[in-house]
Amino acid sequence: MPQSLPAFDSATLTHLQRLEAESIHIMREVVANAENPVMLYSVGKDSATMLHLAKKAFYPAPPPFPLLHVDTTWKFRAMYDLRDKAAKDAGMDLLVHHNPEAMEKGINPFDHGGLHTDMWKTEGLKQALTKYNFDVAFGGARRDEEKSRAKERVFSFRSANHRWDPKNQRPELWKLYNTRKAKTESIRVFPISNWTELDIWQYIHLEGIEIVPLYFSEPRPVVERDGLLIMVDDDRFRLRPGEVPQMKSIRFRTLGCYPLTGAVESEATTLPEVIQEMLLTTTSERQGRAIDHDQSASMEKKKQEGYF
Amino acid sequence: MTAETKDPVYVTDALIAEDIDAYLLKHQHKTMLRFITCGSVDDGKSTLIGRLLYDTKMIFEDQLASLEHDSKAVGTQGGEIDFALLVDGLAAEREQGITIDVAYRFFATDKRKFIVADTPGHEQYTRNMVTGASTADLAVILIDARQGVLTQTRRHSYLVNLLGIRNIVLAVNKMDLVGYSQERFYEIVKDYAHFAKQIGMESFLPIPISGLRGDNMVTKSPEMPWYQGPSLLQHLEEAPINDSRMIDKPFRMAVQWVNRPNLDFRGFAGQIGAGVVRPGDAIRVLPSGKTTTVKSIVTFDGDLEQAIAGQSVTLTFDDEVDCSRGDVITRADAPCEVADQFEAALVWMDEHEMLPGRPYLLKIGTQTVTATVTEPKYEVNVNTLEHLASRTLGLNAIGVVNISTDRPIPFEAYADNPDLGGFILIDRMSNATVAAGLIHFALRRSQNIHWQAVDINREAHAAQKNQTARVVWFTGLSGSGKSTIANLVEKKLHAMGKHTFLLDGDNVRHGLNRDLGFTDADRVENIRRVGEVARLMTDAGLIVLTAFISPFRSERRMVRELMAPGEFIEVHVNTPLDVAEARDVKGLYKKARSGQLKNFTGIDSPYEAPEAAEITVNTVELSAEDAADQVIAAILSR
């Protein structure tokens, strides 16, 4: 018996097999219908899973679309390393976009607060999609992440200026995705909508998917700021008076711009230990992201404006 | 597996801490059940879901803290935990007018992962409920024990049954408020059973619960020793899953995408809809009917020895058989049917009503074709189950219709295989998903009427007349000058020795279309018939001129597509409304303005101007003579 054929004790697919099959189906629908699709790749564990699923969906061909990283220049160094390697391993083109205006104005997370995310990510993403004329963009969002995501369709339409209109979503029946759109519109497609955080971790474990080492605990230099443990990843980090980086055993549950991403103290150095910690943990995943803290509806607002 | 089958509360917490590898191994064999909760607004749906999330530990400390805070601030349970607040991110959003939508929620036990489609209760959100139900393996229908079976309960039960969900739980909620009365429970069950029989529901499982107190939710309630069945969660853990039901059926796979990375590989990618496939199996490709055998089942993880319903795979064949997206691969000796006329149930989901005769796109499996509703049979009053005669279907209406597709498609009855029997209709202009459809059966008549091949074909007819057949389609507001210009054009062509015929709107309505009025549905049918007549005339080699308001882009496009490429010439007689109204040759605008004439184009019925007419004539600047010359020059130069 080949290894890849799991024992069907009840001739029923496991939850992960069913999720995998669904995600593959979604990706193939996009490729069969889109003129110029792209996969948004943010180097996190969700992106890694999505990329792995794409390799499966189109095997033996490489995924027939490029990866797009909308970069802020403020990601962890380890993320840039894996990004370039992952694209190369998959045999895919990697496009990296930097918002030239943000670059020119030197927008950074220390001086510009919300504007940092706004310009680098939200505006940057819109610029890149327009620049390359992509009509469909895959994103690694999950419905269990946050309230407004729970309502979003797998195929989510964006107006010519990339806005989401939650009141005007198409009914999505069975697995019949309506991919028709006006010339000026674009579609964001979320193939891992129905995966939970635990599903993702379990799948990464089972499939041996490579993820950024920052997910595993290691002594790293951090400062404590506004209740978050922030890693000092390079010398652009501006220490406040009296702040001295401490070496602590930390890891990250989500990854973003390093000055905005809170770490957790942890001893988990293997995937099972990470999963174990996640299962025993008592706070939800997005707590580590400074971006969501403004107000509870903040994610929804950002999304309407075009944030992924 | 576990000894605690009677007590499925999260007992593995210890295992997580003690032996995470053992835990993971156990959990990777979990199955997944998708279900929907429905019922009237106050039946306790949110509380039920909140309770399930809470009891399966899907709620984190930070969420719990805000839940406790909110319960005190705005809860309805006197300061105790109000589980409804967990799921009612909805409530606040409803105030802002955003949530009328399905929200998906996730939780898991030792045995299963669950996806709940949390759907709104109101009648106006039927389409969202149908969306949630379309992917569900099971439905939980809630009833407030104090209220019993309500209109909304019936409506949801009807829809759930229509969508083919066979696993139905009747959760009689708020049992604590009726003193856990066995009599009350059985009274409701009896009522419901009566209704269930009427709609043809085969079976359902009644469970008395209290979502708020947790009775019979996770564990058996000590308050109701008279109840012998499983708790809700126990049942959710045991209920069968749709994919498993499909495994015993003959193999079916709709081809999504042809994988051709190089000249040596040609694979057919898709998700298996039914049955099992193995290398060496004889298969048939529909609609062509060509047969071959499966060479290999290719996946990233290596070739498989077999694949089953639900899996996404890539198949290769032994022979170079023609096969592309939209085709259906079936077992060779048990193919599915192929037809182009169907009876189907439709759930209408768009604000614009269904228009018989209008071409919509129909997506079924992986194929998209053009389809029209040929005959609305009846609309169902879901509350009374009455059949009502209807020419159309409005938002959230459910009806049974005959549907015709522009080419034969492989299909199965929805009841046998939702994958090949469920379809959506898409509006070709707005691209909106306007309906969900469920095929009942194929109509035999399409298979019995064949095209008669004729020896003198359309080219021969036209050649004899020394001309090229054309349809010159004048469209514009009433009083824009369509008939006048078309008439002049015909006279001039006639004088040039061309063979022509003018189909005029008013004249046609005296005869062929005498039975049609001016509703949107009738306007569509009017144009459809004229289009068919015009096509017959082009077959006879004629230059056909038509003068119809033809207000909708969809129908003009439908006629265009009936003709050979280049044969259809759209002439937009572009006269502004104020000019046409000032002319008012037939006195119709006056009548329309005074309300004597309903559905008048430009006044209380829309006119959709052409976006890319071959010819546009401006009657404000040009005389009718000059306009006619412009049209003739354009026709003859093509």
Q: What count of structural domains of chain A?
A: 2
Shape of chain B: globular
- What is the CATH class designation of the largest domain in chain B? Alpha Beta
**How are the strands ordered across the major sheet of chain B?**
2-3-1-4-5-6
What's the helical proportion of residues of chain A? 25-40%
Largest sheet geometry of chain B: 6 strands, mixed
CATH architecture of the largest domain in chain A: 3-Layer(aba) Sandwich
Strand-residue fraction of chain B?
A: 25-35%
CATH superfamily of the largest domain in chain A: HUPs
Instruction: Give the domain tally of chain B.
Output: 4
Biggest interface in this structure? Answer: A-B, 74 and 84 residues
Query: How far from one another are the termini of chain B?
Result: 77 Å
Low-confidence stretches of chain A: 1-10, 290-298
Roughly how many Å is the radius of gyration of chain B? Answer: 31 Å
What's the multimeric state?
heterodimer
The residue fraction in helices of chain B comes out at: 25-40%
Secondary-structure element order of chain A, as H and E? Answer: HEHEHEHHEEEHEEEEHH
Number of helices of chain B: 21
Write down how many β-strands of chain B occur, each being a DSSP E stretch of 2 or more residues.
27
